Amino acid sequence: MTRPDTRTAPLRRSRRGEPRTYDFRRPTKLSREHVRVLQIAQEAFARQATTALTTMLRAGARLELLGIEQHSYDDYVAALPHPCFIATFTLEPLAGKGVLAYPLDIAMAAVDHMLGGSGAAEQPDRPMTVMETAITNHLLGRLLSEFTAAFTHVVELQPELSELEYDPQLAQAAAGSDTVMVATFTLGVGSRAGEATLVLPFSSFAPALSNAASPQLSESAQAKRRRAFEALSERLTQVPVEVGVRFAPLEVSSEDLLSLAVGDVLLLRHPQDAPLEVTTNDVVFAYAIASNHRRRLAAAIVPTPASVPTPASVQTTAQTTAQTTAQKDTA
Fold first, then answer.
1. Cβ–Cβ contacts within 10 Å for residue 31, how many?
2. Phi and psi at residue 63, in whole multiples of 5°?
3. Which residue, of 213, 228, 250, is where some domain finishes?
4. Structure pTM?
């Protein structure tokens, strides 16, 4: 995963079908359902943050979601430029911290805009002063409010700004091997554009994402499903089904089958005292004996025999009997 070092360079979209590095030591934990839930929340955050930035900076601003990926925290930090503006925040009541990172020159330009400037001048490449930090904290507080509102359908959060950092290696928001969800955005403020990332710990959000991906149905929805199930079950009982009554199947060679002629006799393996099989779709579901009803042949259902011989077992028994008889004749 690489990111351009140019702080104000516009982000280019990756080409469709471009191969990505896959680490087999860290298999993907984010399912499609999780990504879809996150995408809805992050897109809502991007829209609301765009409005908030435009209002507070009194300048053209935009935040557009590019994608959501899974990384280890070490890999994420290693890809950040240095220096970089990094804000960490708590995620109460969830454990862990979130990270919002974007180019330092855009952060400085935002302060310039809020102080009435144009933001077009070259911005200093240094940590913020106490006054600049206070102004930026006000902006970040508004962004965290929009973040909370966007994630309401996933989990109720009460995020609080934790600290600001400018060296990615010093921003210890998670253990190096922890899996994090990285949402990448295009951030534009005035004439400047760059890449912003919003990082959330996977382990903390996993249960909430699973619940949001399969939300609980309301009482009315459950009642509607029950009625549909009952109606479907009632209609299924009226569906016509083809039923057959047969002797036990007989296996013959293809040669014997092709040489059948009128007058040939097939020796059935069906025992004389065994009931016939009642089948549908080649599945035996009952047993019957031949009978008649008025002037028609009929099948009278009988209890399932305690031991119903299969054609294979009947054939094996017949072969064993023949061998025993032959041995007796030889003796």
1. 13
2. -135, 120
3. 213
4. 0.57
Is residue 93 in some structural domain? yes
Report d(CA 314, CA 247) in Å as an integer.
13
Residue with tokens 């909370």: 148
| 45 vs 148: CA distance, rounded Å | 9
Return the SS3 of 165: strand
Would you say residue 161 lies in a domain? yes
pLDDT at 26: 58
CATH number of domain containing 121: 3.40.1550.10
Percent of the chain with pLDDT over 70: 82
Spatial distance between the Cα atoms of 75 and 1, rounded to a whole number of angstroms: 8
Backbone φ and ψ of 259, nearest 5°: -95, 5
The answer to whether 69 and 87 have CB atoms below 8 angstroms apart is no
Taking residues 290-299, report their average pLDDT: 87
Q: Torsion over CA of 51, 131, 9 and 71, rounded to 10 degrees?
A: -80
Among residues 1, 6, 11, 16, which one has the least CA distance to residue 187? 11
Helices 32-57 and 202-213 cross at an angle (nearest 10°) of: 110
Range of the domain at 190: 32-213
Domain edge (last residue) among 189, 213, 237: 213
